[in-house]
Amino acid sequence: MNYIQVNFSFKTIEEYQQDLLIAELADIGYDTFEEAEKGFVAFIDADTFKEDQLKSVLQQYEGDFQSSYEIIEIEGKNWNEEWEKNFEPLIINEQCYVRATFHEAKPQYQYEIIIDPKMAFGTGHHQTTTMMMQYILETDVQDKEILDMGCGTAILAILAAKKGASKLLAIDHDEVCYQSSIENAALNGIDNLVAVCGGKEVIPAVEFDIILANINRNILLDQISVYANVLKSGGGIFFSGFYEVPDLGMIEAACKPFGIRYVDHKKIGEWVAASFRKD
What angle do CA 177, 14, 28 make, to 5 degrees? Predict the structure, then answer.
């Protein structure tokens, strides 16, 4: 499979703006990103690439920073091999150890999660995933039924399962993420996790004790009404994938009509994760 390599250069850009741009590009099919001297490099398979989509994303940031890009078509490479070179083990709250299959096991940690690199988002290294994992470690999930939306590798659902959750549903619209969720659940000996490929339309009409949604602001705003319909009274939602201003206030306002109230939030860099509860 041939790939399109897009070399991005920026005159002035904040780190959080670059993170947001990368998240937007991931939503339209870009699956690998590398740092560069004046910006970053993004890759997308040639059949998926559409320059008008790229221009549309960049237009959203016209008033924020100046950018330019160069498009190069390249032959495919072993992306998993490239990805593995940069995947280091991760420790969360001195309780959870996240590693790949090629890393040494460390049984001294209470929870060990094995993530096999398949290019799916969610190894715990990104600030949003780290904060969501911190919330799970701080929350009693014993015998709880949990929905993990935008699950990526299913790392959040897997951690909840290891903490005693009774049933877990992991949903992602990306086929790679769907397959990755199934494989990672098996790697970690999780037999009570069901993975489904799709979006909000595949959420079943059953109630959950906890909803995990690490996506982005626009998708969260679009899906909050669906979450409200399937969240048990007294249940909790943990959101991430957005910024404190103005995103957190927008999400709080969208939740209020459904009796879902803000509890607190965490912040690492510019990224935020927030806890909400349904009264």
Answer: 30
| DSSP β-ladder status, 208-214 and 231-243 | parallel
Looking up tokens 């339309």 gives 201
User: CA torsion 223→262→123→15, rounded to 10°?
Assistant: 100
Q: pLDDT tens-digit profile of 195-235?
A: 999 999 999 999 999 999 999 898 999 999 999 999 999 99
Architecture per CATH, domain 3-77, reads as 2-Layer Sandwich (3.30)
- The closest of 34, 25, 240, 19 to 130, measured between CA atoms, is 240
pLDDT digits (tens, 9 = 90+) for 105-143: 999 999 999 997 565 556 778 899 999 999 999 999 999
What is the value of pTM for the model shown? 0.78
Q: Which residue has the tokens 């100046």?
A: 66
Residue 20 near residue 269, CB atoms below 8 Å: no
CATH number of the domain at 82-278, please? 3.40.50.150
Percentages helix, strand, coil for the chain (3-state, rounded to 5) are 35, 35, 35
How far is Cα 150 from Cα 79, in angstroms, rounded to an integer?
A: 22
Spatial distance between the Cα atoms of 200 and 172, rounded to a whole number of angstroms: 9
| Separation CA 8–CA 70 (nearest Å) | 7
Helix (H, G, I), strand (E, B) or coil at 188: coil
Per-domain residue ranges of the chain: 3-77, 82-278
Contact 170, 154 (CB under 8 A): yes
